[in-house]
Structure formats: C-alpha cells, structure tokens
Amino acid sequence: MDSPLLRGGLTIVAGVLTGNVLGVGRVALIAYLLGTHSRADSLAVAMGPLDTLNSVLINSIIFAFVPMLTDAQGAERTALFLKLTRGFVWAFSLVSLSVMLAAPWLMRALAPGLDPQYFDTSVNLLRILALSTLFAGVAAVHCAMLYTHRRFGPAAFYQAALNVFMIAGALCLWKVAGVYAFAIGYTAGASAQLAIVYFAARSGLDTRDLPPCQVRWREILMKPAFFVVYAAGLGLNITFTRAYATHAGPGMAAALDYCMRGVAVPLALLVQPISNSLLPEIARLRSLFRLREALNLIDKTIALAALVAVCGCAFALVFRQQAIALLFQRGSFTAESTRLVASAFLALGPSLIGWSLIEVLARSLFALDRPWPPVIAALIPVLINVAITMQVAPFHPEYLGLGASVGLISGFAVLFAVTHASRRRWLAQG
Known about the structure:
The protein is mostly helical. It has one domain (about 5-430). Helix content is about 85%, strand content about 0%. It contains 16 helices and no strands. Helix 12 (about 320-330) packs across helix 13 (about 335-350). The longest helix is centred in the middle third of the chain and has 36 residues, at about 250-285.
C-alpha cells in the first residue's frame, strides 16, 4: 500500500466501478423508457459519437500533458498549467460551437439510415450534448494537473457524475422534456465534474509571482495531436458500426449501444485503473532513463490485462442472454429486445480483448514518448471493420459487430509486434 502505483490504481478502480454500476442503472432506465425503438436510436446516434468525442479529448489532454507537467517543477509547472487552461477554454468553446452549428450535417453522416421522423430529435439532442465538450475538455486539463501530483480521487468519479445527473435528469424531467432529459442530465453532469476538479486542482495552488511560461503554443498543440489521431481512429471503429446499424432497421443502433455497455464496463474497469496510474510511473522512469524497467513493467501489465480480458469476455458471451434479460427486460424493453441485443453482442463482445490490450499498450507507449506505433495501429481496426461490415452486415445484421472485434484484435497484434521489434533500438537510443 506504500506504492503510489497501487494506491492510484485502487482509487481509480473505486471511481470507475462506481461510475459503471451507475452506468448500468442509467442504461437500464433508458431501456425501460425507450426500449429498442427508433426514439432510442435517436438518442444512441447523438450521445454515442459525442461521448466518444469527449473521451478522445479527455484522454488526449491527460496523456499529452501529464508527462509535460511532470517534467516541470514548482512555479514553472503552475505557469504551464494556467497557460494550458486559458488556451483550451477557447479551443473547446470553439469545438462545442462548431458541433452545434454543424449538427444537421453531422447527423446525416452519423445516422444515414435513421427514421426521418426522429432526425430533428437527434439534431437537437446533439446540440444539447455539445456543451458538455467544453466542460469535459477544461476538466481534463485540471485532471492532468491532479494526476501529476498523483491525486486520482477527484478525477476518478467523472463517469459517476455523468450517470448520477443523467438518471436524476431523466427521473425529474421525463414528463416535461422526454428523451431530451438524458441529454440535459449528461451536460449537467459534465459541468458538475468540472467544478469538482477545478476546486481540487486549484486548492493550495500558489499563483503569485509566477515566471512566464516558456513552452510555446506550437509545442503545446503538437503534444496531444498524436493521441487525438490515435483515439479518433479507435473511436471511428465503433462510430462507423453504429452509423451502419441505422441501415439495419429500427432499433438496431440502440441494440448496439446496449451491447456496448457489456463491453464498456469491463473495458473501463480494466483499462482506466491500469493506464491512468501507470502513466505517471512510466513518465517518471523515462525521465530517469530507466527505459528497460519501464518496458518490463509494460510487459507484465499486458500479460495481466490479457488474462483478465479473455476470461471476462468468455464469461460475458456464455451468460449474455441471461444477463441482458436480468438487467434490461422490463417496460419498453421486451423479450424480443433481449434476443436482438444478445444476438448483436455475440459478434461485438470479443472486441473487449483487442480493445483493452491495444489501449493499455498504446497509452504506455505514449507515456514513453513513442507515439508513432499507436497512431499507425489505431487506423487498422476501422479499415478492417469497414471491409468486413460491408461484406457481412447486409446479409447478417446480427453480425454488425464482427468487423469491430476482428479489427481491434488485429490492431493490437500489429502494435505488439512493432513494439517488440523496436525494443532493441529504443533501448540503444535511451
């Protein structure tokens, strides 16, 4: 328990576990109220891509700037943190505004087969959700500062805040706002989490007589660029699958989103505690030129993650129908909905293995300042997904997730092979 790596991991596990337990409750509430009908599709195609965008921005900020903040010390670190905050408030405001203005065109790309009767609903949902990007992005800068000081608690409950506010919003506003209640709750949860990390990161921070920050904006903007490309590549994998699902009939996009809960919960429990607590440790070893120790730590972590992912995936596939019926089959979510979601999960479930392993390995390589292998590997899953889905899905809609699963496993295999092939060269350079 004296190990900061272990303490950080356990803190993040607690936050992620709380968030995902609440997330199951949130999805169960969506299932009860919306089932697998077109109205559920309108929420899935708006919230899914926006949630992916927020995740890309948050992870990019954290994994780009924790090593940079770790390298700075004292007043220089504070000056860099304040410069990052000021700059990214403007950047994320622009992103949110752009999504709001472009919402109709984005929806045509993200949900080409959506029932036209629900198109305007999805556009309005996306506009409400877009404001959360500003809150999430600014919160990520404060999380990076907290992680640098190995204070994982305030940031660990981000997902929990979202889910609490979504559930509360739906329960309080359903009769008044209908499906929009979920979007209002999501945005309110993002603002609440920003308030939490804002006060945690700035408490005790001495901002008097700070030296001017010497880090140029060009260097600052280039730092997250690689991770943005990497995370966007992985995000496009499931975004493409969801978009194609709107062609498969009413309710298929929603069914895919329910399946994602079965992947996202174990993925979050496995990846976030490991990668977020591992990041500062690997950054520290890199700064001390102890590269061999860092690579050995990564190997042990990958072996443990692979064992957990394979066992968890096998368990989920065997008991998928019983679990779906137990969690969701009530209200608007009928027995037919259970069969639809269970069928889709059979193809999408194995994506947990490739997704968790590529995330752990890629984030470790970013902490080692080796960004090119993860960026290249992240483009492989979506290319394989498109090729398989275009061939299989028109004839077997229940196999929509097959391309995503095969693509992610292939992407990890390529990244693992490249990492081990480059190891000797990296050690020589280090």
